[in-house]
């Protein structure tokens, strides 16, 4: 990391990094966290006093709302984690056994690829990585063609965090249903942005952060596990749960089976409030709004000389490369001269860039969210226009 950036723009900052985390949160999130931290503040699942009961109520409510959001029949199958990565680690290390075969894809985030690499090098797990096209789209048949009788898991993102390309989860879920292979869906970029029905889609394990589209604060994540997958999932973290303290084994039942140690109830109070806000939003309409935003995003950069735009078909996540400029330099100029916050580089997705032809530096990623206004995208387009012109003159 270099010295702190200076923003010289007289205009208010424009945040276009929603694929990293959603911001700002709905106002109720801040209020609920402040209220919980100041007025309640105690641990959940521990004390039998009244405020302990209030902590339990907050946690149970958040779990119920999440189950509703993904249309899961039983909230107890939702376990809380501190982000998407810890939830994915719990799914992958808890599910895959030495010698198993796993199919994954080139679009995955390091929170899937690095656990699998650990299993590959340490436990003799074999991993097949299915390629994607030049937009980050993976073909469902190409995945199914790699599934063998010893394939324990297919691990795939619902959408690429580099291009926003939505993957054929339902086709995979239906094809794998009833086979010995489970489907792990990383819904980091879609939870709260697109309708998800875990049962109808044939998903066995769904992991996601709470802090992006699902309106939670940083420090939140979930793993939902189907009843069938639960019989094959071992806990990977061990410790106190506030329950069955006399036993040296983790509880057999969910969610305690996966939740070792105190939960971040302050964050969950915020997430619960964010989910209340989200429950009033029609998700089909939110998805349509995201698609409109994606269209405007593409429009904003259309025709800029030497600029290649990749993605932003359904979700407002667009990757850009520049014929005459380094993506890091463009991101830094957008911030310092125009007050526009975006991300450049590999976006923790190391394998996709070979397919997007964005090696060796990756892309400039622009991602919108619920607070993004069309005018902000127009401002981005103008700023990029100026940068591209100046760079090509020098
Ligand atoms: C596709 C994808 N998977 C997983 C993650 C990891 O989530 P977290 O940063 O909450 O650990 C991210 C975060 O950017 C992501 O984009």
Verbal overview:
The chain has helices spanning 27-40, 50-69, 84-95, 110-123, 140-146, 169-176, 227-230, 265-279, 283-301, 327-338, 352-356, 374-393; strands at residues 14-15, 78-81, 101-105, 126-130, 151-157, 182-186, 205-209, 221-225, 307-311, 317-322, 340-341, 343-345, 363-367. It is of the alpha/beta class and 394 residues long. It folds into two domains: 14-25 and 282-393, Aspartate Aminotransferase, domain 1 (Alpha-Beta Complex); 27-279, Type I PLP-dependent aspartate aminotransferase-like (Major domain) (Aspartate Aminotransferase, domain 2, 3-Layer(aba) Sandwich), CATH 3.40.640. Strand 3 (101-105), helix 4 (110-123) and strand 4 form a beta-alpha-beta unit. The longest helix has 20 residues, at 50-69. The chain is globular, with a radius of gyration of 22 Å. Residues 20, 83-85, 109, 111, 157, 161, 186, 188-189, 209, 221 line the site of pyridoxal-5'-phosphate (PLP).
Topology:
Blueprint: E1 14-15, H1 27-40, H2 50-69, E2 78-81, H3 84-95, E3 101-105, H4 110-123, E4 126-130, H5 140-146, E5 151-157, H6 169-176, E6 182-186, E7 205-209, E8 221-225, H7 227-230, H8 265-279, H9 283-301, E9 307-311, E10 317-322, H10 327-338, E11 340-341, E12 343-345, H11 352-356, E13 363-367, H12 374-393
Helix pairs in contact: 1-8, 2-8, 3-4, 5-6, 9-12, 10-12
This protein binds pyridoxal-5'-phosphate.
Pyridoxal-5'-phosphate binds at residues 20, 83-85, 109, 111, 157, 161, 186, 188-189, 209, 221.
């Amino acid at each position: 990391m270099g010295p702190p950036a200076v923003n010289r723009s007289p205009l208010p900052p424009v945040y276009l990094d929603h694929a990293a985390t959603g911001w700002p949160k709905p106002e109720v999130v801040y209020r609920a966290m402040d209220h919980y931290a100041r007025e309640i503040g105690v641990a959940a699942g521990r004390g039998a006093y009244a405020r302990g009961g209030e902590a339990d109520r907050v946690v149970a409510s958040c779990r119920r709302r999440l189950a509703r959001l993904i249309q899961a029949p039983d909230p107890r199958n939702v376990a809380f984690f501190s982000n998407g990565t810890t939830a994915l680690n719990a799914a992958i290390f808890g599910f895959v056994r030495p010698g198993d075969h796993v199919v994954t894809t080139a679009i995955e985030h390091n929170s899937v690829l690095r656990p699998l690499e650990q299993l590959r090098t340490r436990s003799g797990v074999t991993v097949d990585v299915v390629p994607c096209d030049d937009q980050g789209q993976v073909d469902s048949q190409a995945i199914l063609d790699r599934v063998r009788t010893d394939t324990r898991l297919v691990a795939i993102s619902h959408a690429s965090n580099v291009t926003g390309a939505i993957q054929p989860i339902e086709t995979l879920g239906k094809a794998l249903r009833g086979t010995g292979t489970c489907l792990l869906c990383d819904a980091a970029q879609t939870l709260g942005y697109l309708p998800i029905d875990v049962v109808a889609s044939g998903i066995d394990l769904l992991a996601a952060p709470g802090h992006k589209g699902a309106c939670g604060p940083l420090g939140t994540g979930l793993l939902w596990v189907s009843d069938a997958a639960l019989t094959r999932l071992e806990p990977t973290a061990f410790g106190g749960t506030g329950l069955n303290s006399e036993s040296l084994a983790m509880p057999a039942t969910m969610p305690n089976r996966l939740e070792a140690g105190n939960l971040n109830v302050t964050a969950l109070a915020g997430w619960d409030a964010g989910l209340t806000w989200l429950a009033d939003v029609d998700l089909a309409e939110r998805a349509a709004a995201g698609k409109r935003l994606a269209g405007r995003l593409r429009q904003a950069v259309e025709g800029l000389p030497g600029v290649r735009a990749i993605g932003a078909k359904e979700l407002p996540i667009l990757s850009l490369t520049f014929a005459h400029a380094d993506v890091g330099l463009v991101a830094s100029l957008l911030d310092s001269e125009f007050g526009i916050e975006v991300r450049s580089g590999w976006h923790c997705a190391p394998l996709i860039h070979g397919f997007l032809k964005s090696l060796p530096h990756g892309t400039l990623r622009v991602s919108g969210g619920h607070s993004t206004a069309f005018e902000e995208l127009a401002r981005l387009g103008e700023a990029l226009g100026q940068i591209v012109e100046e760079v090509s003159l020098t």
